[in-house]
Every structure is written in structure tokens, then in C-alpha cells.
């Protein structure tokens, strides 16, 4: 068993890993990430502390599945591509996507995260991990700049200092000839009300970067081509997996503009 001592934003990746593991163990999972369930079994941790019930786990899985679908579309259209998976945590996206070795895939997170990944996950051709803060931009020099790039980041931007987050996105746009970015963003109201976000609060993490809305990204050299409210992530084909109470509250909340704006999954081109 692996002992882990992550705190603050690094601990949040254990909450999402656990969410995907809970989903994988359901009879009808949304994502079915069995590698996540195996990783959870190898980590000695009090998983109950995140208060991750089945509905919350399904929401984590729905977000991951949506980003997987966009990643798949990008790789199908760009067989020679560079993928930067930023704030990867313990996410097994590279194994779920199983890209051909021609794709250069980089997972980036803090060095402690990369060390745990190296202990638990296998190496593969075309795949590298970089242990660095994503906002210390020196790591970008390790990534070849010649191919179109997909930048995928799940549950990352809201933890970044806003000025550093904007500088990161601008640096990525400048470095590659073209590409896409797929990530989630929070509203300023989500940052202001972060104490109601149980996994974040229990991790001791602080949310910092909120946007007025996805359109704000256009000022950073990005063109927003999709913006899906987190409230809408469970589509008609998966909504019946949620409890009746969750379905009811999603239905009610989806009518409130302020709530719809709290979190979006965005796909941008540059
Ligand atoms: C909510 S977790 C999400 C992890 C993973 N994407 C997932 O969905 O399971 C947030 C992740 O962002 C990482 N993170 C936060 N700030 C970071 C930074 N400045 N540089 C690198 N990683 C960062 C944390 O270490 C953590 O792994």
C-alpha cells in the first residue's frame, strides 16, 4: 500500500480519483475507469473524508467522459499531435485514450504527484510525465512545439492564481502552431462560495481563479467553440443513473442562470 500525505490542492486529485473509482464499481458506470479503482485499492487513505457519494462520483465521471470525448475527437482529426494534460493528478486519461505511439502525450503536475504516478502506473511509448507547477513556465521548453497541440485540464484552472493562469494560457497559445484547449472554468461566484464545495473544503484547498463567463477566455487568444454548463453534463443517456433527489435538484438548479454559470466545460481553438 502507498501512503500519501498530500495537502491543499494536491489532495483534491484524490477526491476525483476516488469519484472515478466509485463510478467504475457501479453496475452501470458512466466512465468505467477500472484503473482508477485499482489505484484506489493501492493507496492507503481515508477516502470517506471527501464525502463523495454516488451522485458526486457520477458527476466527476460525467465531466471526465465529456473531456475524453473531446480528446478523442482531436486525436482522430490530428494523428500527429502533442497532448498536454495539465494538473493530471492521478487521472488515467492516457490509458483510457490509448493513443498511438506517434502521439506525444505529456502529463504535468507537481513533482510529488508524478512520483506517485510513477509508482502506480506503467510507462508507455510516447508518454512522459513532467513534475512542475504548470505556472512555472520553464517546463514548456521540454515540449516540442512543432505539432498541433491539445491542452486538456480537468479541475485545474480554478486553483491557479488568475494572473499566472492567464499567462499560462497565453504562453500555450504562443508556443504551438495551432490546437485546442479543453478544460473547466469556475465563475467568480463559485470562488466566492467555495466553502460549500465539500471535497475542496475538506482538502484544505483554496480556489482562486473565477471568470465572468467562458467568453472572457476570448481575450487570451482563444476562440471558444463549446461551453457546456456543468449542470448539463449528465445528458439524457446517463441522467437515470443519478438518484431521484439528484435528478430533481439538477432539474431545478438548471433553471437558475447564476447556478448554470458556476462551472463550465469549455473547448477552445487557437
Ligand atoms: C481537482 S485535482 C484534478 C486532478 C485530475 N485532473 C483529475 O481530474 O483527477 C487538481 C489537480 O491540479 C493540480 N494542480 C493544482 N495547481 C497546480 C499547479 N500550479 N501546477 C501543477 N498542478 C497543479 C493538483 O496537484 C491536482 O492534481
From TrEMBL:
Which InterPro entries does this UniProt record tie to the protein?
Answer: Ppm1/Ppm2/Tcmp, SAM-dependent_MTases_sf, TcmP-like
Coiled coil where? none
Pfam families xrefs: LCM
Keyword hit for Methyltransferase: yes
Q: What keyword terms does UniProt attach to this protein?
A: Methyltransferase, Transferase
List the GO molecular function terms. Answer: methyltransferase activity
Indicate whether Metal-binding appears among the record's keywords.
no
Q: What biological process terms from GO does the record include?
A: methylation
Under the heading PANTHER family, the entry gives: S-ADENOSYL-L-METHIONINE-DEPENDENT METHYLTRANSFERASE YKTD-RELATED (PTHR43619), S-ADENOSYL-L-METHIONINE-DEPENDENT METHYLTRANSFERASES SUPERFAMILY PROTEIN (PTHR43619:SF2)
Protein name as catalogued = Class I SAM-dependent methyltransferase
Question: Which source organism does the UniProt entry give?
Answer: Amycolatopsis minnesotensis
Amino acid at each position: 500500500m502507498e501512503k500519501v500525505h498530500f495537502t491543499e490542492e494536491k489532495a483534491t486529485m484524490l477526491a476525483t480519483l476516488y469519484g472515478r473509482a466509485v463510478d467504475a464499481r457501479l453496475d452501470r458506470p458512466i466512465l468505467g475507469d477500472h484503473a482508477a479503482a485499482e489505484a484506489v485499492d493501492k493507496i492507503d487513505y481515508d477516502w470517506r473524508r471527501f464525502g463523495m457519494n454516488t451522485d458526486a462520483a457520477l458527476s466527476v465521471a460525467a465531466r471526465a467522459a465529456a473531456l475524453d470525448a473531446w480528446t478523442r475527437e482531436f486525436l482522430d482529426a490530428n494523428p500527429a499531435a502533442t497532448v498536454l494534460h495539465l494538473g493530471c493528478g492521478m487521472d488515467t486519461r492516457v490509458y483510457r485514450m490509448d493513443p498511438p505511439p506517434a502521439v506525444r502525450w505529456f502529463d504535468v503536475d507537481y513533482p510529488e504527484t508524478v512520483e506517485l504516478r510513477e509508482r502506480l502506473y506503467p510507462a508507455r511509448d510516447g508518454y512522459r510525465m513532467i513534475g512542475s507547477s504548470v505556472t512555472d513556465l520553464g517546463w514548456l521548453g521540454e515540449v516540442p512545439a512543432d505539432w498541433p497541440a491539445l491542452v486538456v485540464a480537468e479541475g485545474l484552472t480554478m486553483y491557479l492564481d488568475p494572473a499566472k493562469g492567464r499567462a499560462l494560457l497565453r504562453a500555450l497559445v504562443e508556443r504551438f502552431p495551432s490546437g485546442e484547449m479543453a478544460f473547466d472554468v469556475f465563475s467568480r461566484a463559485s470562488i466566492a462560495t467555495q466553502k460549500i464545495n465539500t471535497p475542496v473544503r475538506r482538502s484544505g484547498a483554496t480556489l482562486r481563479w473565477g471568470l465572468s463567463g467562458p467568453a472572457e477566455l476570448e481575450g487570451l487568444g482563444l476562440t471558444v467553440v463549446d461551453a457546456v454548463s456543468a449542470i448539463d453534463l449528465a445528458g439524457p443517456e446517463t441522467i437515470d443513473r443519478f438518484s431521484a433527489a439528484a435528478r430533481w435538484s439538477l432539474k431545478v438548479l438548471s433553471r437558475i442562470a447564476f447556478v448554470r454559470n458556476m462551472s463550465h466545460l469549455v473547448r477552445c481553438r487557437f
